[in-house]
Design brief:
Blueprint (H helix, E strand, L loop, with lengths): L5 H12 L1 H14 L2 E7 L6 H16 L4 E6 L10 H7 L4 E5 L22 H15 L8 E10 L1 E4 L14 E3 L2 H9 L3 E3 L6 H6 L5 E4 L3 H4 L8 E4 L6 E8 L1 H5 L3 H37 L3 E4 L2 H24 L4 H25 L15
Parallel strand pairs: 1-2, 1-3, 6-7, 6-8, 9-11
Antiparallel strand pairs: 3-10, 4-10, 5-8, 5-9
Helix pairs in contact: 1-2, 3-10, 5-10, 5-12
Length: 370
Amino acid sequence: MRKLNRRQVLKAGLGLLGATASTRFVNVYAQTRTYTLRFANYFPAPAAQSKLIDQFATDIQRLTGGRVRVETYHGGTLLGPAAIYDGVVQGVAHLGITNLAYNFGRFAETEILDLPLGFPNAWVATHVAHEFYERYRPKEWADTVMITLHASPVMEIFSAQKPVRRLEDLRGMTLRGVGYIGRFAEALGATARPIPMPEAYDNVSKRVIDGLMIPYETLVTFRLGEVIRYVTEIWQVGQVHTFYIVANQQAWNGLPQELRDVISNYVKSEFVEKLAAMWNQVDIDGYRYAVKDTKVDVIQLPQEEIARFTQAADRLIQDYTRNLAAKGVSESEVQARLRFIRDRIAYWLREQERRGIKSSTGPASVRIQL
């Protein structure tokens, strides 16, 4: 006697039930079926980023009545930072978080957000990044489903031994910097090395590199406070790492529409703000750690020196504009997108002031006093 598999048994059973009963059975089955999604993340498990992903998993399971369960894989245990995007495309993971710079050049239109455009802090930058994608939806993301863009705190200059007080001090220094952060380090006169963050601590402690272009939060998240001696603030030029969370197309489309709607509505109504608040808080924690709990010297540059950094930033933005034009996006369109980003930066900074949200960086109206 031929043995039937589960699908054949189900089909045979539905035939015996009749058309009306079969439809009712299928509907009930669809409404009770559960789905498991694997979420790849390279941040260490104790990090605030990982804890928020765990909260995402808990919230999604609750909001879907247990029908969608998210398994989280922290610390690169499923995929490393540079492999996450392709891993999601291929279905190794169903969800993944990483940043643009780990696949530099692949998401050229979205990399506009990685330029030194004057983001004052992560809270503002995350809201602007989310709005940028909603407005322009670049086709370069077509092989995944975008859950949301978000942004790290702004870059500062970390140094293990040598203080950076003038632009000339960067000459001869080797700094960890990937993507456009690395390009900006080079525009400032340093040499950039594209070292993955999980390897940064060892590279600094062994003096393979002199320092990093990185936010305050990494002093805690990646324990860099143990090996860094100086932090030079350059938040005025406002460069961030743009992060993304994407989903595998087949896994996403395999969810019933009502479940997709639940997840999408949650992301827009709650999770983007949670991301903005998390990034903002971890940088406050890193700044507090630098000022109060370590021997790190925080260096504030005079306005005339910041102006020199801004000139280098402007040249990098011009280079980006020309390079994207060569790929088919007109300079006038790039300029329009730059205006959109800067307009939204101004809007969200006003909104931050109105809400009384403090941050580790930015103008005095929003900067936390320790």
